[in-house]
Every structure is written in structure tokens, then in C-alpha cells.
Write a structure and sequence with these properties.
The complex is a heterotrimer. By secondary structure, chain B is an alpha/beta fold. Chain B has 9 helices and 11 strands. Chain C is built from 11 helices and 4 strands, in the order ααααββααααααββα. Chain C is globular, with a radius of gyration of 20 Å. The chains are: A mainly alpha, B alpha/beta, C mainly alpha. Chains in contact: A-B, A-C.
């Protein structure tokens, strides 16, 4: 008999609320929440790496952006890509990149690892920025949203923002469930063990490199999923989509929300995006357009959050009901 | 005479100009507690690290059941049946005692690249974990987070984790470290019990325990084997007394 | 390319490399001694450059600007360490990354507010405006030679400071055992504050002297930071010798790749992907020696 935890109730409540949103909200908010849910998927993929495996990657946007570019390639000019073909392809592309980069960066650890992930992501950035592969610094447009047709039948249309919303909501729920299952599996236990004490895992007979690499690849593939839909929604990809501001941003979401919980990643994503909007909307003070310089406030917020919230936003909740990680359900 | 479970042959490790372990040839057999003793810096822990694969040797060989395992990584050596416990408690503190052992036992699955079925539903793995806990006498603390265990219990857990991997040989690095009288006695009892089914390399400073337990003693000084033999031989050896034990009444 | 152009590129490469080393040494100093990874290190480089720009306009002289800028940079470093960095010592690297990332955003926007987003140039001081003739047709700017000389002088100065002075000995001791040094009665907090300020000053100073050559633009801090990371990774953490070698290597590779033309199978490779080359170099090093050229194994 499973105990009903507060967190589970809250989660289900949020799911229901999200499902009901399109009934009451206008297009702007539906699209906003779609974007936030996509960032939540992106953040969860990074939480798998950072929070659960203990690998701090500052280059995760490379996999996010690459999938966006893959979509753009699959939908040149005004053609629409087929969702069922281009999505797996885009995710496979991100996974392949993660395999190559992972094989290299996982030879390092600690601070080194942070630096090389950043550097490799920068390399991918330069690939798209300096060459003519895909529009260079100007980026490319995705004019038509992917079509979800199977042999003529279209179950939904991504051109419809409400359909888009529900597709993403479904994906969010699926990814969450998938990750929960994964974390309870033998693989998941190994991953967490590696974060707690990798050396001991090795002396117990685990070939930790393989597990870290598998995690890195999976994480990259999921980031690719988010990036694919983000590009579809926004209709545009540029080198900045895989730049380090994007990487830093999603890392912030994970840490600020509370890493190693998955729920924290989602919370962090929503919070950061709402904050960004809030800051951007601030009126000017004197001559200074605060809204334009919202990153100043964001940076200040981050600095304060690090100093005042040692366990992220969820850490506040932990003060109420402490939950040690016992390793058993 | 049975074949040695593990045998080192002229094992040597240099750190720059320093020979931490020099030309060490030892054998370890089932049903025999082979203690390695010596002053600090004698090379005992380095030797243990060499055998477990956590340190690469400079020269020499290590044979496990006749097979040359020199140069293999720690994880590969563990899979071949070498279990190791640490001098400085090296457990998974945030996990329960049970999860610590379960994770150890899980390592014996052909592969942990299993993503769907919950880990706790692998009954044979859970059984092994519980068996290991029972063997060391910790089953009543199975659900306690390892960080809340007493020092002695944590040392027991160290051993339990190793046992959960069903090793042929146990490399025990100061299992009695930091233990009080009663805890030590229980540990000695446990080690006696374990000897029947395993070969054991025991590194210890507690001389009472060593002489109570050891079937064979090797004394190391400055990386070299000074002398190796039965406890009586070692006790009687003048060289050993001079180098390490001091007078005959010396206690640890 | 002919011998003269080759020589010029070599000189350019070495000069760039030495400048990188200057910035990277500040980073490694803070990292190695205080165990702090400071993502905002590049921002200090940028701050230095912008200070050089505005102060040289204010004073009419780059020399005064550098002097004033150096003082300001040290002050900023001391303040930052006292206010923020000192609270990070016992925290995970993760939080250091996050906090210093927040600082990057703050610095970038402050720069945008105070100086705007334009690209600026800074004039080479009159004293160093000459060019040394190398051949009948080519000459090399004295300023660039001066830059290289200053970098080398600072490198030697730091080496002497760290290895040969009592202060340096205390710094080295403090990096391995903070509590021990404290129990010896040395004010470790002040020590760390000074080390941090020194690191900041190095980055800012590098930005200041680079300004006439590299111009002053918004993304310059982040750009140099990432290249510094590559320097540290290739050279090996904790190795100043490695950092020097790696920096020069990167300086040369980057410079040459930007001027060479290379086509493979009809596809233009250089200088198109010259921006990627140093990362390819890093990948090769990671494959062959993950701990860096002079890093410690394990």
C-alpha cells in the first residue's frame, strides 16, 4: 500500500490545472505555458545528469539546439516536416552528438568536466555560427510546423496552438513518468550510487563509465525532444539556441528549483520563465529601461538565491517535511 | 595442498623514487586468514590497493585462481571475485544499510542496464543483500540510513557490502579500526566465521585480534616482506621483534 | 605563405598566447589556491577593457587609464570577495558556478547600462606607436611586442612571488590546508581576499592592455573565458607550466587557422571553421591525456 505523499498530490493537482488551462486562458498564455513546459522537459533532462548522476554540464544546450536545427533541415523553406519521422531523427541526432561528446568529456570529472562541457558546446556553437551549414549567425526559420500525418490521417495539428499545448503537456507527463521509472530501475540505482560514491561503485564491480555515458546520451536525447518542439513553436533556430546562455539558463533552472528531485526542475523552469517575464515587464526608472536590462535583475536574483537558498526552492519545502534519500521507495 | 585463490608474484610499486611495495610474493588460501602487519608506511594498504586493482603495479604479477589479473581495472577484478573493505569507512551514507548491500549485490547481475522493472523487485538481489546483512548481524538495522549507524555498525556494513558480492577472497583493510572492546570481539567472531568460505587478506594493527585470528602472518617493513610464517614463527622471530613488535609483552 | 608573413603570424600567435596565459593564470590562481571556479573571470577582462576605454578618454592617456583601472580592479576584487565569494568556500562547485554565472549577467548588464553596447577602439599610446621594421616591406607594431614583454614580466613576477617569497609560501600552504594556516595565526580570510583581488586584477589588466589591439566589444569577456578554460584543460589543472605551454599553443593554432586557407573535397574548411580548431585540439588532448599535458593523474 503506497503512502500518498504531499508531493504526489501537488503534482497531480498541477497536472489537472495544466490540463484545464486552455479552457480559461487566451492564446498568449497557452503559448507561454507551452514554452514553459518545454523548458521543464529540458530542465528535467539536465536534472538527470546534474542532480542524479552528479555530472554538472554547462553545455547541455548543444543537444537542445541541434535538434532544432535538425527540424529546420527537415523542413526547408515552406515545407513541413513529418512529425513521426523528423522527431525521432532529431532526437537521434542529439543522442549521437551526446555519445561523441560524452565519450570525450566523461574522461574528466569535477571542475574539469564543467569546463570541457562548456567548451564542446562552444565548439558546436562555432560550427553553426561560422559556417554556412545553416544560415550562420543569422539562424534559420522553421516556417511550417511539423505535420502529424500517418498515411493521410492527422490526429492533431501543431499549427493549432491548443493542440500544440496538449501534445507538449502529454510529453511532459510521459517524460516525467519515464524518468521516475528509470530512477527506480537498477540503472537508476547505479546512477545515484555513482553520484554518492563513484569510487566505491567501481570497487563493487560496476563499469561506471558506461552508465555515465548512457545517462549522458539519454539526457541529450530528451533535451533534443524539448529543442525540437521549441524550434517548432518559435519558428526559428539560431546559434544562440545552443549557446552558453541557454546552457547556463537551464542549469540555473535545475539548481534553483532544487536538483535531484525532478519536481525541482519543473518548478525551476516555470519560476525562471515567470521571473524573466516579470523582470522584462518592469517599467523604466528615470532614464534606465529596466525591462531591457532584465538580466541584471535575474543575475542579482541568482546571486541572492545561491546565498539564501542552499537547496533551491524545494529546499524551502524541505524545512517543513525533511525527506532523506533512503534509496528505497 | 590446495591451489592459492590469490597469489602475488614479485609485486612492486614505485611512486617516483620511492618503492612503496617491493618484490612481494604472497599466497592466499580458502579457510586461511592471512594477516599482513607492519608499522605505518610499510606498504600494507598499497599492497591491498594493488591487489584490488585500484592502483596499477610497476612490476610483478597477480594471479586469481591461476589467471593473471595484473593490470585489470578495479571493477573487472571485483567481478572476478575479489571483495574489498576499506580502512576509512567507504559506504553510501545517504542510503539505508539495506540499500547499501542491495546495490553491492546488484553488481552481480549480468548487467545493470535494466531500465523498466523496479530495482526492488529483483528478488534474488534483495535476498543476497539481506543474507549479507544477516551474516554480519546487521539485519535489525536494515532500514536505518547508513549515516545514522554507529561507527562499529558502519564497519560491519563495510564488510556486509563486500560479502553481498559473493567474493572468493576478502581484502580487509583494518576492519577493527576505531572499535571498542565489545564491538571488536564481535568483529573477530565474524571474521572467524567467514574464513571457512573465503580466502582472507587481513591488514590490522590490533595485535590481540591478529594473533587470535591469523593462520598465517606476513610482516612488512618499508615495502618489503620481512618475514612470513605461522603466528608462532613470527612471535619467535628476532628480526620481527626488533623491527616491529618490540618486547614480547607488547600490546597494540 | 611566405617567410615574412609566417614570422608575423608566429609573433601574433605568441602575443595572443601570452595574453591568454595572463588571463588564465588569474583563473588558475583562484581555482588552484582557493578552489573556486569563477565563471565571471572573463567579465573582469571585459571590465578592464571598458575601463581602459573610458578612463583613457577621461584622462587622455592610456597609461593613466591602466594605472587607475588597476586600482579600481583590485578594489572591485576585494569587495566581491568580501561580499560574495567568501560565502562559497564550503559550498559545492555547482553553487560557485551558479553564483558566478549570475555575476556574469550582472556585469554584462551593468556594462550595457553604463557604457552601452557599441564596439569601441582604444588608441595605442604615443610612446609605443612605432613599428619595428622586419624586412624592407614588413614591420611589426612595437605595442604588440610590448604586450608580450609585459605578459612575460608578469609571469616571471608571479612565479617569483609564489615560489620565492614568504607570502607566496603562505599562499601555497593555504591552498592545501586552510585550517592549519589559520591556526598558525595567519589571517586566511585576508589572504584569500588578496589572492582573489590579484586574480581579478590580472584579468582586468590583460583586458586593458589588449584593448588597443583587440578592441572593446560586449561579448569579449565570455569569449576569453571559454578559451581560458580550454587553456586550463589542455595544460592541466594546477600546472602553470602547462598553462603557459597550452596558451602559446592555442595562440598559434588559433592565429594560423584564421589566416590559412584549406579546402577538403571542395568544401572550404579553413578559415571557415577556424573558431572550432582549438576545441578540436582540446578533444585530441582529452583522448590522449585526459588530465592535460602537465596535469596530475587521478
Amino acid at each position: 500500500m503506497r503512502k500518498i505523499r504531499v508531493a504526489t498530490v501537488v503534482l497531480l493537482g498541477c497536472l489537472v490545472a495544466l490540463a484545464l488551462l486552455p479552457l480559461v486562458a487566451e492564446k498568449y498564455y497557452i503559448q507561454l505555458f507551452t514554452k514553459m513546459m518545454l523548458m521543464a522537459i529540458f530542465a528535467m533532462s539536465l536534472d538527470l545528469l546534474v542532480g542524479y548522476t552528479g555530472l554538472v554540464s554547462l553545455g547541455h544546450a548543444a543537444f537542445f539546439g541541434l535538434a532544432g536545427y535538425a527540424l529546420a533541415f527537415a523542413a526547408p523553406q515552406y515545407q513541413a516536416a513529418n512529425l513521426w519521422l523528423s522527431l525521432p531523427l532529431a532526437m537521434a541526432g542529439s543522442a549521437a552528438l551526446a555519445l561523441v561528446i560524452g565519450a570525450l568529456v566523461l574522461r574528466t570529472s569535477g571542475i574539469y568536466f564543467i569546463m570541457v562541457t562548456l567548451a564542446f558546446a562552444q565548439m558546436v556553437f562555432f560550427l553553426f555560427h561560422d559556417t554556412k551549414i545553416a544560415g550562420g549567425a543569422d539562424g534559420i526559420y522553421v516556417y511550417a510546423k511539423p505535420v502529424a500525418a500517418i498515411a493521410g490521417w492527422e490526429p492533431f495539428s501543431l499549427e493549432n496552438h491548443t493542440h500544440f499545448y496538449f501534445v507538449v503537456l502529454l510529453l511532459l507527463a510521459l517524460v516525467y513518468a519515464l524518468l521516475r521509472v528509470l530512477l527506480a530501475s537498477p540503472f537508476g540505482r547505479v546512477i545515484v550510487g555513482i553520484r554518492v560514491n563513484e569510487q566505491r561503485m567501481r570497487s563493487l564491480g560496476y563499469r561506471t563509465f558506461r552508465y555515465k555515458l548512457a545517462c549522458f546520451v539519454l539526457s541529450g536525447a530528451l533535451a533534443g525532444m524539448a529543442g525540437y518542439f521549441a524550434a517548432a513553436q518559435f519558428g526559428f533556430v539560431s546559434p544562440d539556441t545552443l549557446g552558453w546562455h541557454q546552457s547556463g539558463g537551464v542549469l540555473m533552472m535545475v539548481i534553483l528549483g532544487g536538483m535531484g528531485t525532478l519536481n525541482g526542475a519543473i518548478l525551476g523552469a516555470f519560476t525562471m520563465m515567470l521571473l524573466e517575464l516579470g523582470f522584462q515587464g518592469l517599467p523604466a526608472v528615470g532614464e534606465v529601461d529596466i525591462g531591457k536590462h532584465w538580466q541584471l535583475l535575474m543575475g542579482g536574483f541568482i546571486v541572492c538565491a545561491v546565498l539564501l537558498l542552499p537547496h533551491g526552492l524545494l529546499g524551502l519545502g524541505r524545512l517543513v517535511s525533511p525527506r532523506p534519500e533512503t534509496g528505497s521507495d | 595442498m590446495t591451489e592459492a585463490v590469490l597469489r602475488t608474484e614479485r609485486l612492486t610499486k614505485h611512486f617516483g623514487g620511492l618503492a612503496a611495495v617491493s618484490d612481494v610474493s604472497l599466497g592466499f588460501f580458502i579457510d586461511q586468514i592471512h594477516a599482513v602487519i607492519g608499522p605505518n608506511g610499510a606498504g600494507k594498504t598499497t599492497l591491498t590497493n594493488l591487489v584490488s586493482g585500484e592502483l596499477a603495479s610497476t612490476s610483478g604479477h597477480i594471479y586469481l585462481d591461476g589467471e593473471d589479473i595484473t593490470g585489470l581495472s578495479a571493477d573487472r577484478i571485483s567481478q572476478r571475485g575479489v571483495g574489498r573493505s576499506y580502512q576509512k569507512t567507504n559506504i553510501f551514507l545517504p542510503f539505508t544499510a539495506f540499500e547499501n548491500c542491495r546495490l553491492a549485490a546488484q553488481s552481480r547481475l549480468p548487467s545493470s542496464m535494466r531500465f523498466i522493472r523496479p530495482a526492488l523487485r529483483y528478488d534474488n538481489v534483495s535476498r543476497e543483500a539481506l543474507r549479507a546483512l544477516v551474516e554480519v548481524g546487521l539485519e535489525h538495522r536494515a532500514q536505518a540510513p547508513a549515516a545514522t549507524l554507529s561507527h562499529g555498525e558502519q564497519r560491519q556494513l563495510e564488510i556486509a557490502m563486500t560479502l553481498a558480492t559473493r567474493p572468493r577472497i576478502l581484502l580487509l583493510d583494518e576492519p577493527l579500526a576505531g572499535m571498542g572492546g565489545e564491538e571488536s570481539a564481535r568483529m573477530v567472531e565474524l571474521l572467524q566465521k567467514l574464513k571457512q568460505a573465503h580466502a582472507m587478506l587481513l591488514v590490522e594493527h590490533d595485535m590481540d585480534a591478529v594473533f587470535a585470528l591469523a593462520d598465517r602472518l606476513t610482516v612488512m617493513v618499508n615495502g618489503n616482506v620481512l618475514e612470513s610464517g605461522t603466528p608462532e614463527q613470527i612471535r619467535a622471530s628476532a628480526a620481527v621483534q626488533e623491527a616491529y613488535l618490540g618486547t614480547e609483552d607488547a600490546h597494540a | 605563405m611566405d617567410a615574412n608573413t609566417f614570422l608575423i603570424q608566429v609573433l601574433n600567435g605568441i602575443q595572443y598566447g601570452l595574453l591568454l596565459f595572463l588571463v588564465a593564470s588569474g583563473l588558475t590562481l583562484i581555482l588552484g589556491i582557493m578552489g573556486i571556479i569563477n565563471l565571471a573571470h572573463g567579465s573582469f577582462y571585459m571590465v578592464g577593457a571598458y575601463l581602459a576605454f573610458s578612463l583613457s578618454q577621461h584622462f587622455g592617456s592610456l597609461w593613466l587609464a591602466i594605472a587607475g583601472g588597476a586600482v579600481l580592479a583590485v578594489a572591485i576584487g576585494l569587495l566581491l570577495e568580501w561580499l560574495l565569494i567568501s560565502r562559497l568556500y564550503h559550498r559545492d562547485h555547482l553553487y560557485q558556478v551558479l553564483l558566478t554565472y549570475g555575476l556574469i549577467l550582472v556585469f554584462e548588464e551593468l556594462r550595457s547600462v553604463v557604457f552601452g553596447d557599441d564596439v569601441h577602439g582604444v588608441a595605442v599610446p604615443a610612446l609605443l606607436q612605432a613599428s619595428i621594421p622586419l624586412t624592407d616591406t614588413l614591420s611589426y607594431p612595437v605595442y604588440r611586442l610590448w604586450m608580450s614583454a609585459v605578459c612575460v614580466a608578469l609571469a616571471i613576477g608571479m612565479y617569483l612571488l609564489i615560489q620565492k617569497t614568504r607570502l607566496g609560501m603562505i599562499i601555497r600552504a593555504g591552498s592545501t590546508n586552510r585550517e592549519m594556516v589559520q591556526s598558525l595565526g595567519i589571517n586566511i580570510d585576508l589572504l584569500y581576499r588578496l589572492v582573489f583581488a590579484l586574480g581579478v586584477a590580472l584579468a582586468a589588466f590583460a583586458g586593458m592592455i589588449a584593448a588597443p589591439v583587440a578592441s572593446v566589444f560586449p561579448g569579449m569577456g565570455n569569449q576569453v573565458l571559454i578559451v581560458c578554460f580550454v587553456v586550463v584543460v589542455i595544460g592541466g589543472i594546477g600546472s602553470v607550466k602547462g598553462a603557459m605551454l597550452a596558451a602559446i599553443l592555442i595562440g598559434l593554432v588559433d592565429t594560423f587557422c584564421k589566416v590559412l586557407t584549406l579546402e577538403i573535397g571542395g568544401v572550404a574548411v579553413l578559415p571557415e571553421i577556424s573558431g572550432m580548431m582549438i576545441y578540436v585540439l582540446m578533444a585530441v588532448v582529452l583522448l590522449a591525456r585526459p588530465e592535460g599535458l602537465f596535469g596530475k593523474r587521478g
